[in-house]
Amino acid sequence: MTAINSTTSTLLVAIDISKHRHEILIGIPGKKRRRRMTIRNTLDDFHRLTTILASYDLPVRIGFEATGNYHRPLAHHLGQAGFELKLVSSVGLARTREALHNSWDKNDPKDAQVILHLLEIGAVQFFHDPLVAGIADIQELSKTHEIVSRSKTELWHRILTHYLPLYFPEAERFHRSSRTDWFLAFLEKYPTPHMITTMSREAFIADAWAGSSAARCPKNACFQIFTPRQLALWDCRSTRTPTQFACSASCWPKGAVWFDSAMRSRRGPSSFCPIIPTTSC
Predict the structure, then answer these.
(1) Per-position b or e across 158-173, b if 16+ CB within 10 A of its CB
(2) Do residue 28 and residue 42 come from a single domain?
(3) Residue 35 belongs to what domain range?
(4) Which of 88, 90, 256, 265 could tie 271 with a disulfide, CB 3.0–4.6 Å?
(5) What pTM, to 2 d.p., does this model score?
(6) Contact (Cβ atoms closer than 8 angstroms) between residue 63 and residue 88
(7) Where are the alpha helices (DSSP H) in 180-265?
(8) pLDDT (tens digit per residue) in 207-258
């Protein structure tokens, strides 16, 4: 939420945050000339800044842009000193900088000028210190959960939209099913079809069935994966020539019917011996 506040008789302080040092621009009421200073990201410099701001004997309003976690130590120190803290939107800062300077170019002193301008017009947001509010740990856990969930979704999308269409287009139905565990273990163990075709059918089924119970490949699915027709199509897809890729695209739909029907059938081993189309590449 944007806070619109009066700046009359208030000392405005704009801070551009960085990793090792911070650029500070101080706007003094009644004076056109602004005071510029630089402090290091150390406790001694924090105390020096607090002493300078307190010496003006005026209400102090400090604005800064959240930069990773580098702003937290300084913001916490200034908040404990009793100064009013305001947060500047990163998007608002970028758009205002482009409008004021008619350029996308940026540097720390220029950003401090833009932050001070946003403080003067009141286009700032409220800042809530997680340590003071007692939500620091839950906030970090929430951020970690978001990052992990997003990475998991991105990985699944890459597998489903890029990897499987190239090598195992018939295996997409195992996604989000009861066989997801062994499906991921299968992809990790056999990332490309040629790693399966180098073994005999019996050796492949025995090797895929080995391992922990959570990562075992169901024997029925193993029978379906390892078939003459499947091997022919994999050989066709594994070759990188355009002709064979086109061949794979044209003949695979004809041979995929038996795979789906066998996967959904529960009538016993005979259901896993479907009629394979005789049309070959």
Answers:
(1) ebeeeebeebbbbbee
(2) yes
(3) 2-131
(4) 265
(5) 0.59
(6) yes
(7) 180-189, 194-197, 201-209, 219-225, 228-238, 242-255, 257-264
(8) 777 654 444 455 555 555 555 545 554 444 444 443 333 333 333 333 343 3
